[in-house]
Amino acid sequence: MTEANDQKTWSATVLTLFPEMFPGPLGQSLAGKALKKGIWRLETVDIRDFARDKHRSVDDAPFGGGPGMVMRPDILAAAVDGVAGSNDTDRANTGRVIYLSPRGRRLDQALARELADQCGVTLICGRFEGVDERALEGRNIEEVSVGDYVLSGGETAALVMLDAIVRLLPGVIVEGSALDEESFAHGLLEYPQYTRPQVWEGREVPEVLTSGHHENIRAWRQRQAEELTKARRPDLWDLYLRSAKSRG
Asked: What does CATH list as the number for 177-246?
């Protein structure tokens, strides 16, 4: 954990049964350097600290039967209240509370940017068969999914989400213009990239990229981005076309 006295520091709080999983890969590379510099702050909260028995139990069998266990609403709500407060007013300075769930809103670049522009976020990492629905309703907790697949727990999803957000914070990526050229920045996948050697295993770098003609290079990259998006992500391509049409 990195201490930060600056109130403007972007803050992430993770509620989890496995706090030792953090910062994990977020302690390395760009995110790790930014964490050490105090550009962002990470706090982990062990949900078991809010358990009420000597065994530190946080789950129970589901009503109606079925496999697995469900995280209890009283314990989860107590953990949320302890770090984010019990209402929207309390959370004005702590950020949104999000439960990582496969049934939530899909994480995309727009949401990552939206959260990066705010003061921070509180993430809830589920385990077992999920959490009691009443806790989500009672604390107005959002649900976000990192993809259409099932993980053993929300910790790895939280790491993915935080990485997507943190890299967008000011000062994390020194060359800020690089963010404008990435996939999804303008609704398209990124164009192909090339570097030395100019010829490798008989494959040459496209001639336009060595021409020095910046306008031709820009136009080529735009066409490549459009063609890749149309071929590989028709859903994004349709959104891109609708957006372009609305702009006139």
From this structure: 1.10.1270.20
